[in-house]
Amino acid sequence: MARKRHTAEAIVTKLRQVDVLTAQGRPVADAIRSIGVTEVTYYRWRNEYGGLKGDQVKRLKQLETENARLRRAVSDLTLDKLILAEAAKGNF
Fold first, then answer.
1. Tens digits of per-residue pLDDT, 15-30?
2. Count of domains forming the chain
């Protein structure tokens, strides 16, 4: 079976659909099946996106991207610093 990549907004929408269906009295397993994902995926999504709204999800993704960029920058600078320190000792 081919894997799908769901957008964050689509995930939030599907989580809300499950909430509506369970509020209407359907069992959780049936509600999850109706949105087309496995229970494991549903609970993973719920842990990550549970209480978020659409605009909050966009902001979360922007922050995660920015955080990854900053981590790369720090690791590159740390590596440069170590190389320069070693070269300053004359160990090259």
1. 999 999 999 999 999 9
2. 2
| pTM over the 0.85 mark | no
Closest by Cα among 66, 39, 48, 65 to 8:
48
Residues 41 and 22 in one domain: yes
**Could you write out the three-class secondary structure of the chain?**
CCCCCCCHHHHHHHHHHHHHHHHCCCCHHHHHHHHCCCHHHHHHHHHHHCCCCHHHHHHHHHHHHHHHHHHHHHHHHHHHHHHHHHHHHCCC
- C-alpha 90, offset from chain centre: 45
* Residues 45 and 58 occupy one common structural domain: no
